[in-house]
Design a protein that fits this description.
- The protein is mainly alpha-helical.
- It is 38% helix and 0% strand.
- The chain contains four helices and no strands.
- The longest helix is centred in the C-terminal third of the chain and has 10 residues.
- It is elongated.
- The two termini are 27 Å apart.
């Protein structure tokens, strides 16, 4: 995608590879627009099967997930 953009074969490219970002920033012919994205993530457990059928196991998993670090990242 980056090669097509640099060659002028296209005018817009979305979701650039992280490795390509610096190349885009250095090229005066290109502009990089970015913004906060909306991302939803969740964990689902099949509570019909052991050991996830036990509420204490599910609570332990919930405690083990560092949700603050996930949101901060």
């Amino acid at each position: 995608r980056l090669q097509k953009l640099v060659a002028g074969e296209c005018q817009v490219s979305v979701f650039p590879r992280p490795d390509d970002l610096e190349t885009v920033r250095r090229d005066p012919k290109l502009s990089l627009f970015s913004g906060m994205g909306f991302n939803v993530g969740f964990v689902a457990y099949n509570t019909q099967h052991a050991p996830l059928d036990r509420v204490d196991v599910r609570r332990a998993l919930d405690i083990a997930i560092d949700k603050t670090a996930i949101v901060k990242t």
